[in-house]
């Protein structure tokens, strides 16, 4: 192995010298390959299968363009994500608009833009949509978000009858669901397609998805056989785990896709469902592993119990360790062959004790100016970045075929002031 880490054939030392640090670096080929893999493996002979990229994981125009190029649909959750998708030239018909509290204006914007599908999250939103549609022409497809009472997070999942989640209508509220679907059918321009559910994020257990789909299957059967309501589409959400550290063992993609398609086919057959189309919404698992964050090492200090290594970013560009105690792996990217002899705590530069990127990792002895690569930061890094402590947001580069391309420029100090002092 060379001493310097290379991404897509380009040394990170060259990238740091050209674009500065902190820097989000993406291997474009890895993103595209993952998109293709989803398209290839999420397949059924019985059901039409559609993959939506959950853009919240990493929402920039270039990602939207890649999704479009690889024939994925898009999940957006706000007017801002919608705006980004439209600006990138995504066909509005391929956009699915989520969110538990879309504003009437966002709904209006979506309808105006010709967004293909709205995922209605609660009764009030459904009523708001019906009111808006009765004032206009055109058509919008609707999926109703239901809550199957399965909550999964990383290695555990639970099934509850009572769910206090802010998302979706509980499948136990059947009357409210039936009434809402009746409202949809009475409103010109609304095409009710079926249901959506999402049970959590970074899920490792295939049984969680099998349980979700079995519960949804029974629910669809009840609606179909008791009320004559046919759901032609079922979106089972995203949440597929990725490997952040060696402790993580995600379900391989072919098996994951097969688990979902087989479970849906089984429910269709078991209950004689009218189901024709199934959808999934991966976000993290499309983009997390294709990205890393490159930092420059600054000062170090030794305390009684810890060796701190400070980097030039932190919780402002990756909030996940502070927010979720998320674990990451890293390397000193210009000393890939040096023996790892120092038990190190990697901390950021933000004014908060919790700004620790990696609690404990073995690293080679290093010095100021060395480069630290934190792996698997491609999802929910840039998209959850902030200006805390007035740190400008880092640049984003995509590497493909040995070529680096800056797709988001580094913010300047002037960018931080943009929008202030408007009255003066
Ligand atoms: N669909 C819906 C309705 C969702 O709410 C989400 C994620 C996804 C799809 C995509 O899930 P994914 O495949 O990316 O796990 N900020 C957190 C993750 C929040 C996920 C929210 N919803 C994190 O950094 O771990």
Automatic annotation (TrEMBL):
The catalysed reaction is: meso-2,6-diaminopimelate + H(+) = L-lysine + CO2
Residues of the Orn/DAP/Arg decarboxylase 2 C-terminal domain: 24-378
Superkingdom, natural source: Bacteria
Molecular function per GO: diaminopimelate decarboxylase activity
Recorded hits in SUPFAM superfamilies, A to Z, give: Alanine racemase C-terminal domain-like, PLP-binding barrel
- Give the multimer and partner information: Homodimer.
What protein am I looking at?
A: Diaminopimelate decarboxylase
Task: Give the organism the record lists.
Answer: Amedibacillus dolichus
Q: What is the lineage of its organism?
A: Bacteria, Bacillati, Bacillota, Erysipelotrichia, Erysipelotrichales
